[in-house]
DNA sequence: TAATCCAAGATTGGATACAATCCTAATCAA
DNA sequence: TTGATTAGGATTGTATCCAATCTTGGATTA
């Protein structure tokens, strides 16, 4: 690839984080990224600041930019806010979707289903996220989408950190879509809340309880050979 | 003032927008801001991008950065999301606040009350916003605070654009605090939703219905003598 | 007159050079 | 050996220069 604009770089880094190619606490050195995209550090800095605004990375002055490493408490906050926004969102769209919108949801369900059977759990998780995002999009209110996009991106990082059981309650999505289609707003709302609680419960918070609290701690433990995009 | 760091600049611009010294659609020329803060354009650019991430300003490539000018639809989206987040927030804190937290809320109410009687409606609006923010803070979940801070900042811009009746339902806040104190979660939730709907209803969306849709339109109308921080 | 084209000014976008800061590791002394 | 000190490298932060783009206004021409 030759040069790239800021949007390309933004998408590339965000995708790399979501696909766990960049794992939590990894350092993102500006010059390395700049060279690999054929640009100077300036646009890279802009992108990293933008990602910092979405809490996907953490900028530590004069030290560097690191992929976010949410604590257990932060992870629980993410899921709590997801329940607030998604419960309201699914209630809002219930019984209000067009045939075309419903078929878009249905298509995402099919893709998620086949990703499961093809043994690609990471892809399945991302398609699951897209299902939730689509509902937010269909509310017609941009804030449902904007905030949920941020929260779902963080959910991917949380899953990268704290793992996830294989069984992803795929059937919940199907039932959710039926309730939306039938206009059962209250039931859809309750199911969404339950669904998100179940996802949160499948995370193994205690297992990696010794997960790094601070970033400096990480790199001290690794004795200088810390994880980096250079490696 | 001599030099300034990014945080100073960020706070100064944000305050200027909130206090309506910088009105919607005004252009923020990087070099002008840089000179007035004694720095180069670089940190100013960073701040403007950060504000753009919060939707307080709009960056148009190769044209400039302008104070946000929300449309009626966008304004209604802001209030809808405020209802979602604040209804959940006030329900969450009801009956859970310490004596100290309640007195913090009470103090804000007193300040708001005196700002009203001192004929400073702008200050009263800001103190009202702080009251709502404090509740979000007391949820203990950072996302309530982060998202609401963004939405309330935008509310100030919306009020600057679409005006507001003098009578601000100051008594709602008092009743809200009582319900929180007494642990009447459901009643507090309902009152918060009603309160926010009333605020939205006092906005005069139709009057300034000829409000500028696009920024370029604004400056065409003014025939070159457009509003600017230079002026 | 009216429309088109071009040039100049203003502003932002990006690349580069340098300053500030942090971390590491070697050196030295107790 | 252990601790403090310091020099070097690595990385980010800032300033400055130039390029890209947009807008305006005047000149030119039909």
From TrEMBL, chains A, B:
List each copy of the HTH gntR-type domain by range.
Answer: 3-70
Q: Which Pfam families match?
A: FCD, GntR
GO molecular function terms here? DNA binding; DNA-binding transcription factor activity
Cross-referenced Gene3D superfamilies, in alphabetical order?
Answer: GntR ligand-binding domain-like, Winged helix-like DNA-binding domain superfamily/Winged helix DNA-binding domain
Q: InterPro entries in the record, alphabetically?
A: GntR_C (IPR011711), TF_FadR/GntR_C (IPR008920), Tscrpt_reg_HTH_GntR (IPR000524), WH-like_DNA-bd_sf (IPR036388), WH_DNA-bd_sf (IPR036390)
Keywords assigned by UniProt, alphabetized? DNA-binding, Transcription, Transcription regulation
Q: Answer whether the UniProt record assigns the keyword Cytoplasm to this protein.
A: no
Read off the PANTHER family from this record: HTH-TYPE TRANSCRIPTIONAL REPRESSOR NANR, TRANSCRIPTIONAL REGULATOR, GNTR FAMILY
What is the protein's name according to its record? DNA-binding transcriptional regulator, GntR family
Organism in which the protein naturally occurs: Paenibacillus algorifonticola
């Amino acid at each position: 690839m030759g040069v790239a604009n800021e949007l390309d770089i933004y998408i590339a880094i965000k995708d790399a984080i979501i696909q766990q190619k960049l794992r939590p606490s990894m350092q993102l050195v500006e010059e390395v990224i700049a060279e690999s995209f054929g640009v100077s550090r300036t646009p890279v800095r802009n992108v990293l600041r933008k990602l910092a605004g979405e809490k996907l990375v953490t900028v530590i002055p004069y030290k560097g930019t690191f992929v976010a490493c949410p604590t257990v408490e932060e992870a629980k906050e993410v899921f709590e806010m997801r329940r607030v926004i998604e419960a309201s969102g699914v209630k809002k769209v219930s019984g209000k979707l067009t045939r075309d919108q419903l078929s878009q949801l249905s298509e995402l369900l099919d893709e998620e289903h086949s990703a499961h059977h093809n043994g690609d759990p990471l892809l399945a998780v991302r398609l699951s996220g897209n299902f939730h995002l689509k509902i937010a999009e269909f509310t017609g209110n941009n804030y449902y989408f904007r905030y949920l996009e941020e929260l779902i991106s963080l959910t991917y990082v949380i899953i990268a950190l704290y793992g996830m059981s294989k069984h992803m309650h795929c059937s919940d999505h199907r039932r959710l879509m039926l309730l939306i289609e039938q206009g059962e707003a209250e039931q859809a709302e309750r199911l969404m809340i339950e669904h998100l609680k179940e996802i949160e419960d499948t995370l193994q918070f205690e297992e990696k309880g010794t997960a790094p609290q601070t970033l400096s701690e990480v790199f001290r433990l690794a004795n200088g050979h810390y994880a980096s995009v250079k490696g």
